[in-house]
Amino acid sequence: MPVSFKDILLAFEFVSSGGMEHQACLCKQSGTFYWHSELAGDLDELPDDIDDSDKYVQIPDKKELDLGKPLVLDFARQFLQDDVGDVQEIFSKRGAYARFKDLLQRRGALDQWYAFEANAQERALRMWCDLNSIEVGD
User: Fold this and answer.
1) Is 31 left (phi over 0), alpha (psi -120 to 50) or beta?
2) Residue 27 near residue 19 (C-beta atoms within 8 A)
3) Can you spell out the DSSP letters for 105-138?
4) How far is 110 from 35, CA to CA, in rounded Å?
5) Which end of the chain, N or C, is less surrounded by CB atoms within 10 Å?
6) What is the spatial distance between Cα 116 and Cα 121, in angstroms, rounded to a whole number?
7) What pTM was computed for the model?
8) What number is the average pLDDT over the span 116-128?
9) Does residue 50 contact residue 25 with C-beta atoms inside 8 Å?
10) What's the pLDDT score for residue 22?
């Protein structure tokens, strides 16, 4: 059953936005998503067999796909060579993304970062779908 890439991306963004507090699972047979938040409980009624890893797959977050700090450092090495040390310093402390975006704003590279991040997310999610035998329909 093909699953919309937009739906996969939406679930990925939901999971990534909540740290460990948000989860989403996909039924590979029906293409149905099931949403859960520690803050709000089950947003959908979960099936009894949700733990069946042959049938359901948990949507990954950014960290699971190496789209956090490693992606930022890759971007800095490619596009902000003079600022790599500053970016490494920024990401050694809490609140790094806000300070990183401030640096990008000062360098006029914020839109470039968003495009770079979106392309990396799409590539990583499509690869994840392939690895998990999820047929993607656009």
Assistant:
1) left
2) no
3) HHHT-HHHHHHHHHHHHHHHHHHHHHHTTPPEE-
4) 31
5) C
6) 9
7) 0.85
8) 97
9) yes
10) 86
Compute the residue count for the chain.
138
pLDDT tens figures, 38-73 = 777 556 778 889 889 889 999 999 989 999 899 999
Question: What residues does 81 pair with on adjacent strands?
Answer: none
Burial 85-111 (b: 16+ CB within 10 A, else e): eebeebbeeeebeebbeebbeeeebee
**pLDDT higher than threshold 90 for residue 20:** no
Are the beta carbons of 109 and 80 closer than 8 angstroms?
yes
Contacts for 80-89: CB closer than 8 Å, 24+ residues apart? 80/107, 80/109, 83/107
Token pair belonging to 34: 């099931």
Determine how many CB atoms are found less than 10 A away from the CB of residue 120. 18
Phi and psi angles of residue 6, each rounded to the nearest 5 degrees, phi first? -60, -40
DSSP string, the chain: --EEHHHHHHHHHHHHHTTTSEEEEEETTT--EEEEETTTEESSPPPTTTT-TTTEEEPP-TTTTT-SHHHHHHHHHHH-GGGHHHHHHHTTSTTHHHHHHHHHHHHT-HHHHHHHHHHHHHHHHHHHHHHTTPPEE-
